């Protein structure tokens, strides 16, 4: 991790003995107490800590729920009701876990958009950014498999529709897609075998996710945090110790987040779900409108945008394959942002042209989410196609071109100057005074 000096000094004889042999306390103190943090971080930076809380909460509640859940086609739906009605505080634990999935994705989307706006993907943070995209992919896989576990109508048919997408690979290599689908199902149709497989993976992947999060934090503490100005730390007055400054701000942000979290858990726990998922799965009755959870809707809209004709371009038998490729590419392309953006300036605060394209991109993602919840017909498909085009243009055209033609605003000479104004070479005492207040 980063090579700053730690002020940790064990006070007891046992502490000194242990520190000489396994300096865990020194490492934790150096990385989470003394660690130099840019003094100008705003509340958007609290979502890193919020995401850590969400991950721990999901694992703890998930382990408890797994003790009472039955991963079988005949027992899954009833076991959910058993947890909610008969297990002590089961209703709260289940609501916390279900709502927690949505809160987890809500926080990670804000975290990613913040990174895109402030250029947190730029050198030397490329590996940090790629690990973040890997985390999102693991979250999506875990969330999709978790959505199947209640074994309601939307769970069953959602699995049927999404897993069937791999059959599009038959267009390239005959039989490949069908083989993958049958392997995922564990047979020739979605059944209890499929549910058991997805339950096993849903239980396993969060621990894999925890390992990648550890690498993500390691990479963060090697290269240091970005900040709203996008300027590296240049002088001691540019930073403050992580504790108590950053941790206090994180605590306030987490408390505000928990108020929203608790409101959903205790007052509207089923608001973010779909009504059809409270009806037991029936392979003979197809819901009129199959939709995934809200956090998958933008990618679902991109998938459905590829019909037999895409903005007047005939796709024919390749429509389904193109939709599947575009859906996965919509996530993977985010990982290439460090190499697609040609600007030398990180923060969009100092990039007048890119800033407006970014806000249009944010609107595009929200619009795709709305369109994903609507039937794949008429004007909804047309608008989904238009927004899909802009989604990919943002990464493949706007990022490279705007970085070359844009004239950025003048950057402050240091973080201290951006906070206090005036000269960035303030006397040490003058810079330290605001930090002690």
Features:
single chain; 437 residues; mainly alpha; Cytochrome Bc1 Complex, Chain C; 4 strands; globular; iron; metal ion binding; metal-binding; Di-haem_cyt_TM
Protein architecture, described:
With 437 residues, the protein is mainly alpha-helical. Among the domains are: 40-152 and 192-226 and 241-278, Cytochrome Bc1 Complex, Chain C, CATH 1.20.810.10; 298-409. The chain has 17 helices and 4 strands. Helix 11 (297-305) packs across helix 14. The main subunits of complex b-c1 are: cytochrome b, cytochrome c1 and the Rieske protein. The chain crosses the membrane at residues 43-69, 96-116, 128-149, 161-186, 198-219, 251-273, 294-315, 321-341, 353-371, 383-405.
Poorly predicted segments: 424-437
The helix/strand series, from N terminus to C terminus, equals: HHEHHHHHHHEHHEEHHHHHH
* Count of DSSP H/I helices: 17
Mean residue pLDDT: 92
CATH class of the domain at 40-152 and 192-226 and 241-278: Mainly Alpha
Any guess at the CATH architecture of the domain at 40-152 and 192-226 and 241-278? Up-down Bundle
Strand content: under 5%
The rough form would be described as globular
- Kindly identify the CATH topology of the domain at 40-152 and 192-226 and 241-278: Cytochrome Bc1 Complex, Chain C
- CATH homologous superfamily label of the domain at 40-152 and 192-226 and 241-278: Cytochrome Bc1 Complex, Chain C
Amino- and carboxy-terminal Cα gap: 30 Å
* Radius of gyration of CA atoms, rounded to a whole number: 24 Å
Total strands? 4
Q: How helix-rich are the residues, as a percent range?
A: 55-70%
Name the structural class. mainly alpha
